[in-house]
Every structure is written in structure tokens, then in C-alpha cells.
Amino acid sequence: MNRSITLILTGFLFNGFATNAQMCTPGTSGTTMDINNVSTYFHDGGDMWWDFNSARYEVPKGSGIKAFFANGLWLTGMDSENKLHCAAVRHRLTGDDFWPGAILTDSNGELTVDCNAFDRHWSVTKAEIDDFKAGGTATEAIKRWPAIGNPEFEVDLTEMVAPFVDADGDGFYNYEHGDYPLIKGDQAVYWIMNDIGNVHTESGGMPFEVEIHVMAYAYQANNVVNNTTFYDYTIINKSDQEYHDFSLGFWTDGGLGYYLNDYVGCDSTRSLGYFYNADSIDPNQGGVLGYGENLPVAGLRMVKLPKDSDGTSIKMTHFGYINNGNGPTTDPGLAMEYYKYMNGKWKDDTDWSIGGTGYDPSNPLAIKTNYMYPENPAVVNGFSECGQATFPGNKRMIQSHSGMNFIPNESKTFTMAVIFSQEEEYKGTCVDVTTFFEQTDTVQAWTDARLCENFNLEVSAAVRNTALSIDTGSITLELSGSISLMEYQWSNGETSKNLSGLAPGEYTVTVMNENGCGANASFEVYEIVGVENVNPLDRLTYYPNPSGSGVFITNFSPAEKMMVEVYNLIGEKIDQQSIANVVDLSEFQSGIYLIRTSIEEYSNTQRIVIAR
User: Which residues, 6 or more positions from 78, have their beta carbon under 8 angstroms from its beta carbon?
Assistant: First the structure.
């Protein structure tokens, strides 16, 4: 049975924070992606790559060797009252901060989430879509794709959710009309989450009220891309809050075969964090398969950067590591501890510092850093774990993009690539990661060349022309092809989809999705002379209505003044004015009046209220 759950207005109190929450249970869906040389597993609760029992990021596929153990999304930030919000998970063994489901708006304007309807993954291959386009049978993922208007979906989707190709151009998804999912890669897995499904029991933080879309995908290739998986994230601020010091990033529990001999490192210029082995041999030990002498390096690179609210791309601002165990350098348990890790501090508020383990609370001369272990391990005595001869172990790494603003209805979009390579050279016991960096550059170039993969948009419009040189023209856009979270930029500065109140002239629009893929189109609004039955005053309104001052403003600005006649409710004309856009009835008493506005042979009559 499907269950629609509306927003609860009374707050819960958890870890000292008041939170608005809904009554969802944790997501249960899990699925595998295995189109190339990687086989891995996804949940729909913010974490992935394990199945709550064992690691599931296997590469090479079929080897039984796991490169990673788990990964979790972390979000932190401050609201206008400087209250901390946090949504973050690790293994989800202590709680949950994310739940399946889009945050929709019901008929009363309230936020609502149906977690049950979205507790699933949509997995589809390029071959399945190509077969469907050629007249073949639609798979279940194609039939039930969570796109606007899909009659096969469990709930009525009246808002844009998943991207799709709108073959018939009607703005709604229906596979029987030829519509199909818009994906990347040779296989894609799509899921949708939110952070208001229930109380945040993992971090204890206040929710953001964000909706999170994830498309994981992979390609079959003859280079390092065959050992790579990709993740497109779209995080939408569905709240009325503007957040500052907003950070997004990932916590990653490594492994890299045998998990107790690992080091971490980063390259801030590439927004890259990575794991490598501390020893020259990765053993089979304790029932865990290692990579032996053919040692790999594996890491996460942000190949499409998130942007601040002003459009500035934000590279990786912090990279750190977390030890498995107890103490100030281990996994966080409180929202403020998550926030500290995202902003370059240990749990006890000590700054990350250069040298040794990067934790030196008793040294007043310690030099603060935002990037732990940024040097190539092959640099002798450099600031890398191998260069500093730190103790290897079961390491976790955290990489963040911090310091952003996040305004209502804004979307943060970015792409993370997870890259595995076994072409590194070890010098003594320290790896030279130059080749791995070059491999990640290959993945970056591959991503850049495919930002608009499968994107094809056609833009047309229904145009209403003007009459009598008065601004009554309008342009209603009609889109067909690839439909996503589209943005609009008109030559007159407007950013809405459709325009009204237009004077004669040419108007050009650029329509783009979150990746900057789009199309341009131009439309001409003509002046029509001598056309009957076109009332330019049809769109005229007065506001505020009711008015406390008795002064009313019109949204209509004609080329010449309009005649305004004011009547009481018994039909007596009590005033007459010639106006451009303001009617001043400030001397009239409270009450209801009729106002008749006319220009040439056209007129408009409305009821207005003065309420003092």
C-alpha cells in the first residue's frame, strides 16, 4: 500500500536541536551495477558500496577483491540564525539521516514525502533504451521511471523529478508515447532521497529539507574508464531557509584489498582523494583477499565541481583522514564533529596541521593545513603518509567542498568519479602516483567530452502578438526532447519559462540543464493593427487588494494614460481619474468599490477593497 505523509508541524527534540520530521522508515532497496570491470552495490539511504555485511566494490570484476568498503554523503551548514544543520551517514549502523523519496508539494502547499513509492532503484542500460527506441519492449525501469506525469508511477508526479526524453513534446512522461529515461553511460542506476523523512539519528543534526537525486553510471571502455564508476548528484534546497557555510562531501571507508595496511593522500588541484598500500605486497589475510604484488591506487575525483550561488565553481576545499577506533581523530558522532571534519578540524577542535599525523594539539607552532598529505608519496620525507612514516591501518578519508551559500529552490549539481588503477610504480615502499594522476586526468577528459551525452532539445513556442502598440504579447515555450531541471535566460533579462506583457520585437531564449547543455531560439512578437476582439486590458490587475491605504497600483503600463471610473455598490459613479499606473482612493472610507478602467474602446471592471 502506498502511503502519503505530510509535514508534521510540531518539532522533535534530538541532541539539543529542534527538527521538523516525517514518519518514514529507512530505505530497504539495494541493487548492483556491473556493466564494466567494476561490480558494486547501492542503497537508497545515503551510503553505498557494501550490503550491511561485507564490501561490494569489486574490481577487477569477478576477482573477489574489494577496492572500497563503504561511502557516505555528508552535508553541513548554518542557517540565518547560525544554527547548525547536518545530514550525514557512514555505515548507517547507528542511525539514519537520509530516506528515499522526492519532496513534493501537495494541493495545500505543504511539503510531502511518500517514502514507500520511492524506496527502489531504477536500473537501465543503454542497450535496453536503444531496443525500446527501435520498437522493442519497455523494461520495468522504463515504464515506471519517476518522471513528471508518468501514469505508471505509484503517486501523481506533478513536478519535475527524473530527467527524460520527451518524444511527443507534451511535457509529461509516458513510455507509450515514446518517452524514455535520459541517462549517461552504458548502464545507469537512479534513485532519489531526502533528509526530512524522520529524525536524524546518525548525526543528530537538524535537517536541511533537501531533495537528492543520484545517477550512478559506468561505461565499457578500453582504458581506465573501464575501471571507473560515476555519480551525478543534484541536491535541491526545498526549504525557505538560506544556508551559509554550506559544505558537501564524502566520507569513504577504504580497504584496497587487505584493509589494515592502507595510506591516504590527496591532490587539491584535481579535487582528488585516494588510497594506496603502505607495503610492497597486499596480502590475503584474515579471510580478506589482497591485490598481491600488483598494487593499485584508487580514489575519488570531483570531475564536475559544485557551484556557489553566484555561479563560482568550488574545488575541494578540505581533505582529511579518519582513524578507525577511539579518540579525537576517529569517526564523528555529533553534528558539530561532522562540521569540524568538513572544515579542517579534528573532533576536539584542534586544527589539522602539517607534519607527522597532522594531529599536534600541544604544539603552538603547528602549521594549519586544509589538505592532509598533499605530496606525492614518492617525494622523500615529503608531507605524505609514506613520507612521514605514519602507522598504516583501516583508514577513512573525508573530502569536502565548503563555504558555499545555498538559497531556497537552488540546486547544487556535481559529478564524482571513482577511479581504480594498477599501473603504479613503487620506489622502495612508497608509490609514485604520477601515473594514477594521469589516469584521473583521462577520466576528467572523458567526462568533459560527455557532459551533454544523449542530450537533444528542440525549442518552439506559441506566440501571441500585440495590439495597438500596447504590451500584450506573450511567448509560451514548448520543449521536446531531453527534459530535465531546465533554466531559462531571455534576452530581456527574464528567467521564467514563459513571457507575457511583451511589446513588439524579437526575443531570444537560451534553455539549459544543470550541465549547461541546451539550445537557443528566437521569436518575433508583431504588432497587429485592426484586429477585433483583442482586449489589451485583459491582463490588468490592481494590488494590493485589499489596500489599507486606499492606494492601488496596476501591473499594466500602457503607452498613454487610462481613464478610471470608481463606482459604489449601488452603481453611483463617485470618482474619475486619468492615470498611468496608480489609483489614489486614499480619501475614501473602508468598503467595497467597483473600478472601471478604459482605454479607447477597451475596458476592464474589477472589485477592489479598502480595509483600514
Answer: 84, 85, 243, 244, 245, 246
> Cell triple for residue 589?
472610507
Mean pLDDT of 589-604: 85
Q: Tell me how far apart the alpha carbons of residues 342 and 251 are, in angstroms, rounded to a whole number.
A: 10
Q: Mark residue 389 as left, alpha or beta (left: phi above 0; alpha: psi -120 to 50; beta: remaining).
A: left
Q: Tell me the pLDDT tens digit for each residue of 127-146.
A: 999 999 999 999 999 999 99
Which position has the grid cell 503600463? Answer: 557
Residue corresponding to grid cell 597486499? 282
Q: How far is CA 496 from CA 142, 287, 518, in A?
A: 30, 59, 15
Between the alpha carbon of residue 303 and those of residues 58, 269, 452, 494, the distances in Å are: 22, 12, 14, 31
> Helix (H, G, I), strand (E, B), or coil: what is residue 508?
strand
Radius of gyration of the chain (CA): 29
Find the mean pLDDT for residues 39-46: 97
Q: What is the pLDDT of residues 464-512, one digit of tens each?
A: 888 666 677 889 898 889 988 889 999 999 999 999 889 889 999 999 9
Burial of 380 (0-12, 13-18, 19+ CB in 10 A): exposed
Is the pLDDT assigned to residue 309 strictly greater than 60? yes
Closest by Cα among 509, 498, 510, 508 to 474: 498
Cell of 518: 541546451
Closest among 28, 409, 353 to 211, alpha carbons compared: 409
Residue with cell 521569436: 523
pLDDT recorded at residue 217 = 98
Residue 5 pLDDT: 26
Whole-structure pTM value? 0.82
Q: 294 burial class (0-12, 13-18, 19+ CB within 10 angstroms)?
A: exposed
Report the distance separating Cα 66 and Cα 25, nearest Å. Answer: 30
Integer Cα distance of 507 and 341 in angstroms = 49
DSSP string, 23-45: -PPPP--EEEE-SSS-BEEEESS
Residues 268/274/277/278 CA torsion (nearest 10 deg): 30
- Rounding to the nearest 10 degrees, give the CA dihedral for residues 552, 553, 554, 560: 110
Place of cell 602549521: 367
Q: What is the pLDDT of residues 14-39, one digit of tens each?
A: 333 333 456 899 999 999 999 999 99
Q: Is 20 exposed, middle or buried (0-12, 13-18, 19+ CB in 10 A)?
A: middle
